[in-house]
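Study this protein:
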Amino acid sequence: MINVTASRIAIALSAVLLFSTAAIAQTVSVDLKGASEVPANNSTASGAGSISVAADKSVSGKITTTGIEGKMAHIHTGAAGANGPVLVGLTKDGDNGWTVPAGAKFTEEQYAAYLAGGLYVNVHTAAHPGGEIRGQLLPK
């Protein structure tokens, strides 16, 4: 009886862990630099932050930049080396911060692109209106 009860408890705990892990957001660190832009540039500016995508495909996160006066920042579709359309516009948060607006959510197609490493974040400036610094979102 003890072995059967222990087995049932182990199975129940495994199920709880499996389902609770699926509900946790996946957070990806991102580093932005001019060399990652398309076309690459020699900007000395940089950025870093994290983007989280929950099981329901809701998106949150923040990046902070240095050495740059950003005009706009976005999450785009596009594999490394390729540019793509804007998916989510980021909101300016202070002098050097950008946040994902509340309520942002990926579609199934956008989520699949995210999982495949086909999304990036970039910051646009007056000197580089197409983007001065960029970082690929690479989930594990």
In short: The first strand starts at residue 26 and ends at 33. The helical segments are 2-22, 108-115. The beta strands are 26-33, 46-53, 59-66, 72-77, 86-89, 91-93, 97-99, 119-124, 133-137. Confidence is low (pLDDT under 50) at residues 10-22.
